[in-house]
Amino acid sequence: MKNVIELHNLSKVYKEVTTVDLETITVREGEIYGFLGPNGAGKTTTMKMILSLVTPTSGKILVNGRDTKKDKTYLDQIGSMIEEPSYYPNLTGYENLLVFQKMLGFDEEAIWPTLELVGLSEEKNRKKLVKNYSLGMKQRLALAFALVKKPKILLLDEPTNGLDPAGIHEIRELIVKLAKEEGLTVFISSHILPEIEHIADRVGIINRGRLVYEGEIEAIKSNTWIEIGGDFSHQNIVQSLVEFDLVEVLGVSASHVKLSNMENSQLADLVSYLTGNGYRIFRVVRESETLEDIFLSLTKEA
Known about the structure:
It is a single chain. By secondary structure, this protein is an alpha/beta fold. Helix content is 34%, strand content 30%. The strands form 3 sheets. A 6-stranded mixed β-sheet has the order 6-7-8-3-9-10, sandwiched between helices. A 4-stranded antiparallel β-sheet has the order 2-1-4-5, with helices on one face. The chain has a 4-stranded antiparallel β-sheet with strand order 12-13-11-14, covered by helices on one side. Helix 3 packs across helix 5. It holds the Pfam family ABC_tran. One of its GO terms (molecular function) is ATP binding.
């Protein structure tokens, strides 16, 4: 799959403090890449460097193979939502996008379909001035600014800020549609980890400016295991599990056993075996690793 965005040895130093120090990140065509990290980790600075809003201290950024230092035409292919745009509060959403159109020269006929796409084309909103928009409506308008010129790449920094759960769901579905049906490449940061886990193909986690994890979402979801709760204090549960065979023990205590994943039929046989040997079982559950588990373990303060 073609790499659309490539970051190589990218760094940014402010007043002798290194805020970004990324060896390599690649974003593939048509994928949703979740870019995660605590506040101050360097996410927004990295996005601004991709957009040439901030000059890197060192390193190289390639967009569709073009060096962003040498060729700024790549910006025509990118729509971004990094910070809230400067709106004209006494104009409607349509009129704001029309001003934007006069500046950039994209097709004026794209404005209404874009407003419809982000949920701002209803009759009740058509004449509403932006100064009367809710925070959620402003987020939708910011997304419209990113989409109206029909880009191939979207850079979205916290696109669901200010939205209620229904609004978050709508934006999530829209992002997935843009990537999977329209073929857009999406580079998105968010602090709502379950949302990223639902939509991203891959994630990169940065902490203190450095990439500490990168992986496929499906690989995270496939990391599963079995946990059995019971009274294991009076017998040798490890010996019993060894006698049962075909079980890998990952952890054990007087009330808890953690085992490698197994098929349902094998698990049922194991529980029957344990109860038949006098163990009192009160809990059996199949657990899966989550993006939040990885995030918290990698970004917790020492």
